[in-house]
Write a structure and sequence with these properties.
Elements: E1 22-29, E2 32-39, H1 44-55, E3 63-67, E4 70-71, E5 86-94
Parallel strand pairs: 1-5
Antiparallel strand pairs: 1-2, 3-4, 3-5
């Protein structure tokens, strides 16, 4: 009967190792490649903001992250909620202002 409680505590945080908690993103932007490592709980909007800042992109445009042809929306969702893990190639595209 010693094995009853084996699986209860596997989802707790605080394992300071590498592995499943970070996602490396290689983002193609209009200004070149942006590479960054983010916690898997980072939001899409955080990644866009980091790429904009790193590359000096005009943030006045509407920007979207695209993964395998799919726009990652809403931008308030986390990386892990889209199933992104390991090293992921994304594209940052300006959707234009619709003018």
């Amino acid at each position: 009967m010693a094995h009853e409680h084996q699986h209860e505590h596997q989802h707790e945080h605080g394992h300071g190792g590498h592995g499943g908690d970070e996602v490396t993103l290689e983002v193609g932007t209009p200004k070149g490649l942006f590479t960054g490592t983010f916690p898997k709980t980072a939001k899409i909007e955080d990644v866009i903001a980091a790429a904009v800042e790193a590359k000096g992109i005009d943030s006045g445009e509407s920007l979207e992250l695209v993964y395998n042809g799919d726009v990652l929306q809403p931008v308030q969702r986390t990386l892990v909620s889209f199933g992104l893990a390991g090293t992921v190639k994304l594209e940052l595209v300006a959707t234009g202002s619709g003018v």
